[in-house]
Amino acid sequence: xxxxxxxxxxxxxxxxxxxxxxxxxxxxxxxxxxxxxxxxxxxxxxxxxxxxxxxxxxxxxxxxxxxxxxxxxxxxxxxxxxxxxxxxxxxxxxxxxxxxxxxxxxxxxxxxxxxxxxxxxxxxxxxxxxxxxxxxxxxxxxxxxxxxxxxxxxxxxxxxxxxxxxxxxxxxxxxxxxxxxxxxxxxxxx
Length: 190
Hints:
The protein is of the alpha/beta class and 190 residues long.
């Protein structure tokens, strides 16, 4: 089944609802794709619980996610994140709720194993959109380390992982979070 701006891995014949008790809806994608905002809207639309791993990480660490990266490093953050995925699944799984993952969570093989029984939705956003949403689309003084180049490389590296895991893919480049959530709710109920 194909709709404008969205693709489904389901075939047209014999399509069954992706919503089921015990199976969560997992939102993955690059930074600023809308996982948190779409996730909250989608959960409200479906009347199911919602959890966000970045919020769970910040609560567990008692500091913002960005501070964990700076103060403790990425490895410590990823340990918190792995725990947040497990606890987030505990919160949403029973009622078929929605879990928004941080953009790098799916790089962890343990996390991918935890997600294998669930419906994974890839909220796709291209480099121009992510750069704009992060404020990296403006001409700036050259910054050592080339953050724009690093962002582009990160998006390219992760794109195949997101796509391979996804049952559904939705491009968020030209859609507001409300539109993405409404489209997903419709498709998940089909």
